[in-house]
Write the structure tokens for this entry.
Amino acid sequence: MTIPRFARIKEFIVGQIEQGFLLPGDQVPSENQLLEQFGVSRMTARRALQELSDEQILVRAQGLGTFVADARPMSSLLEIKNIADEIRARGHNYHCDLILLDAVTASAQQAMDLSLAEGSTVFRSVLLHCENGLPLQYEDRLVNPVLAPDYLHQDFLLQTPNAYLSEVAPLTEADHIVEAVCVEESIALALEIDSSQPCLKVSRRTCSKRGVVSFASLFYPGNRYRLGGHLNF
Amino acid sequence: MTIPRFARIKEFIVGQIEQGFLLPGDQVPSENQLLEQFGVSRMTARRALQELSDEQILVRAQGLGTFVADARPMSSLLEIKNIADEIRARGHNYHCDLILLDAVTASAQQAMDLSLAEGSTVFRSVLLHCENGLPLQYEDRLVNPVLAPDYLHQDFLLQTPNAYLSEVAPLTEADHIVEAVCVEESIALALEIDSSQPCLKVSRRTCSKRGVVSFASLFYPGNRYRLGGHLNF
DNA sequence: CAGTGGTCTAGACCACTGG
DNA sequence: CAGTGGTCTAGACCACTGG
């Protein structure tokens, strides 16, 4: 199986971006430059640039050139955002309390969430993420120990579980369920809300190439958080 | 401004699908057939099929042909689904109560939601969508009268506002906000829930080329509905 | 003006599928 | 085998942008 030439050109450009040689806004080689550089026809060079443009990695403008797109907007609703980055992006103070970090024996439900056998040992972390001292997200996470064996030895006050897991097991897929729920007393207490207050619950299962990495239950006080999204047709 | 040939071929095929001449699973003309039919080069015929395939309207298989894709999956999280279709797709009974349909004078908030001036006359509809007799969605919708002048004369027991508006003002954009809330007594009563029950609230602003068409506030009982989504990386 | 991307042609060779 | 889609070439003319 040989890699097509247009794909090689795409890889070359993506590589330049990932290695930091090309930054958002930078102009990438034109069709004519790629044509000479790779010894291909213009249609082939064009296809590489066009597909990267379709993938929103590049933007093209007639008469001007082709440029690296601004910070990957991910565009889809319910992006996988790092809660710490999100809070800091608002110019607010972020901090985090570690409530639990341990290995546990998976219940039937937990095993199913991670696609493992009941009774397997899995890792579990519970964290409370705060914005300007006010609890914003209660994160109860199960982790597949095979795919993140060093999970229990991380300092999650410095790096969120989400960020850590993205490093050790790059995400390929994610499923979400969004619900409005009442939370149990212990979670209400941690979130500093009355237990009658509605909360937004996001259940997220994330997968890498090697399988289900993690299953997170995220609880947000209904009066402090909303999910936004934008669609284009 | 002349329409490119590949775009004409795309329109032709999409038209055949929309008019029901081509059904999901049906084979569409091959590159060679389109080439003769439209008198274009193969690269041009190919581009039409390839782009429709990228848009998930067609699926292609080497050696086999090109086929109409199964029921548009829309793929994005929080797709704009027709609640009636969604309920019927589950094999359940759908029906709908009309609670209000009238012209109203826009409050400051309502005017902002529709990007109109305060005090403008706008249309408002309130409907209750039920699954097997049980209320599932309370829909409170504001409509821009300029973009849907006949809105008040529709029978929304036959066609949802969403479906009607999509016809008269094709959507180009949509914004969503998802929240967990408590609802006021009147809405709780309509939804047949206790007012202490958390609800999922989806606020959706939809736009066509000519501007903001509609602003809908959708309330779902937290224990009867959840939003799901899937992302690929 | 020279350079960019947008559209298009008329060919070519290939891998794949079904009969 | 004939037909399909996948890749690719070496040209062409065009609209658009900046200088």
Remarks:
- Chain B touches chain A at residues 43, 54, 76-78, 80, 170-182, 196, 198-201, 220, 222, 226-233 (CB under 8 Å).
